[in-house]
Structure formats: C-alpha cells, structure tokens
Amino acid sequence: MTGALRAQPAATAASTGQSGAPRTLGLDDLLDIRTTTLSALSDDGRFAVALMARPRSSMGIDYNRNFGDPTYAAPQRREAWVIDTRSGERIPLFTEPRVIGGTAWSPDAGVLAVLVQRQDDRFDVLLWDRATRRTRSLTIPGGRYAFAGSDMRWNSDGTSLVLAVRSEAWRTKATAEFARLTTGPRIVQSSTEPFLAWNGLQRLGAVESVVQIDRRSGALTEVLPEGMRQQWQLTRDGQLVVYSEDITKKTDYDVIGGTEQQLWVRPTAGGAPTQLFPSLRTIRPVWDRDGRRYAFTRDDQLFVGILGDTSRTRLAGDTTPRSDTSSTARTRRARERFTPVAWVGTSALVATNRDGVWLLNTASRERTMIVASSDSVLTTPRVRYVGAMQNDQQLLMTMESRTAWERAMLRYDIAARRLDTVPTDSRIIGASTVSADGSTLVVSAGAGNRPADLFALRGALTSWQPLTNANPSLAQTSLGQTELLQWLDADGAREFGVVHYPANYVKGQRYPTVMLIYEDFFNDSWDATANLLNANGYVVVKPSVRFDVGFPGEAWVKSVTAAANKVIELGIADSTRLGVHGTSYGGYATNLLITQTARFKAAINISGKVDMVSFYTDSPRLGVRNTHAAEKSQDRLGATLWQQPQKYIAHSAVMFADRITTPLLLMTGEQDHNVPAINTREMYYALRRLGKEVTWVTYTNGGHGVPLSSMDDWTDFHTRLLGWYAQHLKKTTP
C-alpha cells in the first residue's frame, strides 16, 4: 500500500530562463546547497535576519577540538541577510560568509547586534545601523569577550545590550584543562574526583557572566557574576533577571549531561536574589511575554505564579490519593495531567494533555479544547503550537497527519471559539516565529524533497510571501519524485517510510535500491544523500522501525526486510540488487542487520559502532553519553553491562561477523570521539580474519559522519560511497 507520488516541479527553459535540458545533481551541487534559518525577527515583524550555510563554506573543522574543547567554535561560515518582510528587499550584512554566533534586533528595529568570530575563537559584537547601513564594533571592557553561544537581549529602550560573556581567566583555565586531558604528558583520572573528567570539562562550557553595555558610551554594568548556569532571561521591562545556578555535586549517570539547577530572580540593577525553585530537575517553567508570569507542572499538578508573589495557584491536576490505583483513578489522573506550552496574554494558557491541545483561562479556570490529538492514537493529527496573532485573539498551530502527506495550519479564533484550517500547499513546515506584536508569522518551509526557505504570512495567512530563494539552481536540476510507503512489518504492525525515485524513473522497471536506515522516517524533507544516489540511478527507501526495549536488534530485520519486500512486490526494486547503509546509529543498525540476513548485496556503515561491550567505555573522551545511550536511551538495551551482559553481546555485530556475507564498506573519522574509529575497526579485522569482503576507510582529520575536515575528504567520502554501490549493485567501475 503506497501513497500518491509527489512530483517535483519540472524545470523548463521557460521556467529557468535558460536553454537546455535539466541537469543531473552532482557532488559540486551538494557543496552549494544552502540551509536557511531565521536568526532574528523585529518586534514589529518588519525585518528578518536570515542565515544561510552551505558545506563549501564550512570546511576546515578541527574535529579534535570540536569534541570537548569549550573554547572552540567550528567554522560554520554563513551568509547573513536583512530582509524587509513587506517589500522583500534583501540586504547582505557582509560581502562573504562569516562565522556568526547570533543576532538580535533592538526594540525599534533601528540597530541589529551581530556576533561575528574573529581570527581566534573569540567573537566581536557588531552593531549594524539599519538607516545608514554602517557597522561598528561594541567594545567589551574588563578582560571579557563574547563567544559563539553568547545570548544577547536588548534592554527595554534599546540603549543597552545585555549579553553573556566569558573572562580571559576562564579561557586560560579551560584551555589548560583540555590540554591536560589530550596532550599529557600524563593524563590522570581518578574515581575520587566528583565528576568524570570529560563531564567536568563539559561543565566548564556552561560558565559565563552576564553584562549590560551602553551602546553609545560603552559603559559596562555587571548583571550576573561569573557562574555555571543553563539559562537566564530578562523581564520585558528589563528590571529583573531570572537565572539558574548549578548545584550539581557529582556526575549523574541517569541523565546525559545531568545537572541540578536552582532558579533565582534578582533586580538587574543589583540587590539580593530570591529563589523561585530549589530544583529544576522535574520542572520546566513556561513564561509569558512580559517574563513575569510563569506556569509549570509538578507531581502532575499544573500551577501558575507571578514574580514577587510567593503563592502559586493550582490550575489543573487530579487530587486523588496516589494509593488509589484503580483504572478509573489512573484514567482521571492521566486526563488531568496538563503540560503548559505557552501563555496567551496574561490570563490564558495553552496546554496539552493526553486528549489534545487546550486553552485554559487562569482566572476563571474555564477549559476549552482547541483540537484533539494524542501521541498514542495514530488517527489523530500531530499538532504543534506556533504562537498568537491579532492581539492574542488568534492561536496558530501546525497540523500534520500521521498516515498521509496532509499538512495544514490551524487557526483558532478565541472569541468565536472557531477552528479554521489554513492550507499550506503540502509544504513541510519547520521552525515558525510570530513577531512580538503578533502581526507577522515567519516560517521555514519547503516543498517535498526541497530545501526549506523562509516565508512571511500576515492577516488571513493565505498569502505566502517568499523571503529567501536559497537554492535557485535546483530549479534547473532534475530531481525525482517521492512517495509515502506503507507496509506491515514482521509483527503485522503498520509502518511508514519514504521512497525517493531517480529523476528518470520508469514505472515497471526494477532498479538497484538502497535502504537508508536510522529510526523513523515519514516526511520527504530534503536529503542530500538520497538525492545523490537518485542522480546515480538508485531508488532510495527510508523505512521506519518499531523498537522494543531490550530487543533493538530485531527492529531493523523486522521492518527493513518487510519494506524491501514491499518495494519488490510493487515492481520498484530489483531483489538481486539491494543495498543498505546508515550513519551513526544507522551504521550500527546496518551492521546488525547484515548479521541476520544475506539478502543485501552491499552495505555501508558510516561512523557506526559494532561492539556494544567496548563502546560502553571505549571513548577516549568518555562522558555519561556512551553508557546512558546503551542503558537507557537510543540503544535501548534497558540494563547495565553487568546486569545483562548477554544483551551487550547479542547486540554486538562483531560477535556474529562469521554470519556476514554482504560486502561491507566501513567509513570512520579518526577524530570521532562519539563513536571512536577503533570500535568500527574491530569489524574490519574480524571480517578480514574470516576471509570476507570488507574495506575500511578512516579519515585521519575526520569526525562523526560526513567529514567536513577538508574539501578533499568530503569529495573522497562521497566518491567512495557511490563507487561501492556501483561495484556491487551495478557491477560497474564508478
């Protein structure tokens, strides 16, 4: 059972303004595919800042420092454009791509603050005047500097910029600690230390102070002293700062990057702080636009509060004693368990529960269901709240079917209590931002199998004004169709996946087919690897898998082989020319899969582990992640190595290398400290010892996944990938 084909826009001489037939996507094209993000939107919605990144401009990453060195910022160079969302005028901020940490508009949109990297890892704060289009630097005195992750906010009247900074003393300490753990001459780690060494270094990356700088005089005022914190924010009037303080005592093995935080509030002008929460471990406050009202869930009870008032009002939550475990009590508790999403004005709250999305009046306690949606019910749509427009009278959400490529925006009129559907022409909607005054919505959206662009919407939301056209060359490039695939896995459960067809696909003709695997796939968003394989004559199938904790190894063989059966049954795939590959967790899945079936004629494992036992502790920069992934999160083994060692052995493909008959290409980065190359290397030596076909390629300067260490590494990587499939699925020399 399949969905309808989604055709890509045809490129013609008339539509492209150029003569000749559409061209085929090549490696050089992939280097210039731009990814576009909205960096800032002015309060009145008039001016947007778009950042565009492409692989060609981001080469030269030092993967040794990129994993663990808190002073390092990877050189992701991006184009920066200021866009008038009404006229569409685009103004480049720089003549060439720069490493940009972030941007922030002043309240009147007259000045744009931009974080730009210097030659070292420090960042300059540049102020761009919109009227004159001139830029000047804002000096940060006192031996402090901005960094890649510096949050920036303007004060209420736009006279000062408030931002996070670091000290030169911190930099010296962090640099020395990274060197101690990487260059020696001796590296000592001890269980008497409260933190794993690399977790301790990670924690240094959370140290910052917050300062306020007058944009005209340059005078600096300290808002928060140097400390370890995960968040800080100003009230809208700039009078108060809410911030967290770290009180973690030792490494927490139950949470990746686990920390214990307290939440405090104090006047920005100085004064004694007031504690809001002694612990944020189970609390995620949601703040209103003024930054003074907040909502949170604790022990399944929904509360609201306001700064300056120590009392909190319970808005929802069942009060049945926990000792009552009857089905009626459990159902009631589940329905009364609300999670706050966003404030609407100062007296209403958007919240979700197991039944859907609700509007809760914080004064009258009235509840209104906006739309039914449940993660456990496949027939209900997936709904995501976007924001409020029209003076907080209209609520916007995106809606996406879970069983078909049907997408729309939902607009809820609060006064009329009416829910309207706004068509999106099947665009896949990503990040969405509503301006502070509620007049303008800017969305990142793209047609199926196309990179996203930015659009502005106002009023009835029926006119999609394009703000960017990041990849005009794709209009001249021949791309294939895509299709939503449905099938039943080995357990009889319905699964979904995406099929990418070659541009010149002929129905009824069987093609060499590559199964590109990871976890779940549903939308046909842009996929560079899939399109590169399509351009070289392969059908690409991206199947979803269903996992059971403790038995993840079965998931791929149950779903991937069933998906392969489906595309063979439909006359799409050639059963004698099936390939499979994945990256990271998908590479791990690939290796496990080919120990359980011999039907694939070629396989590629990119940065995927092959030995769960050694992966558990083999990273030279081990933090909690490796152990947590195995025990509790992505790897889904559900136990420690010592509780169930058989699970670790059963999910280590290297232990069953003798069963592999599929020619295997292993691709690793020597500077990958996430899945170290030495782990994947075990499979090379095992298969070599067993007399089986295997090639291992490691990029000495590469990291995790596709190497952006150099143009040469990037080109070699993709050329080898295509060559492996050409050799084994087409029996040709690439």
Quickly describe the structure.
The protein is built from 14 helices and 44 strands. By secondary structure, it is an alpha+beta fold. The longest helix is centred in the C-terminal third of the chain and has 19 residues, at 711-729.
Please, could you describe this protein's structure?
With 734 residues, the protein is an alpha+beta fold. It has 14 helices and 44 strands. Helix 4 (168-182) runs antiparallel to helix 5 and helix 8 (552-569) packs across helix 9 (585-594). The longest helix is centred in the C-terminal third of the chain and has 19 residues, at 711-729. 40% of the residues are buried. Residues 7-19 have low confidence and may be disordered.
What topology does this entry show?
Layout: E1 2-6, H1 13-16, E2 23-24, H2 27-31, E3 35-41, E4 47-53, H3 63-66, E5 77-84, E6 90-92, E7 98-105, E8 111-117, E9 123-129, E10 134-138, E11 144-145, E12 152-154, E13 160-167, H4 168-182, H5 197-204, E14 207-214, E15 220-228, E16 232-234, E17 240-246, E18 261-267, E19 274-277, E20 286-287, E21 293-298, E22 301-306, E23 309-316, H6 327-335, E24 339-344, E25 348-353, E26 356-361, E27 367-372, E28 382-389, E29 394-400, E30 407-413, E31 418-423, E32 428-434, E33 441-446, E34 453-457, E35 465-466, E36 477-478, E37 482-488, E38 494-500, E39 511-516, H7 528-535, E40 539-543, H8 552-569, E41 573-583, H9 585-594, E42 602-606, H10 612-615, H11 624-631, H12 645-650, E43 664-669, H13 677-689, E44 694-699, H14 711-729
Parallel strand pairs: 2-36, 39-40, 39-41, 41-42, 42-43, 43-44
Antiparallel strand pairs: 1-37, 3-4, 4-5, 5-6, 5-7, 7-8, 8-9, 9-10, 11-13, 12-13, 13-14, 14-15, 16-17, 17-18, 18-19, 20-21, 21-22, 22-23, 24-25, 25-26, 26-27, 28-29, 29-30, 30-31, 32-33, 33-34, 34-35, 37-38, 38-40
Helix pairs in contact: 4-5, 8-9
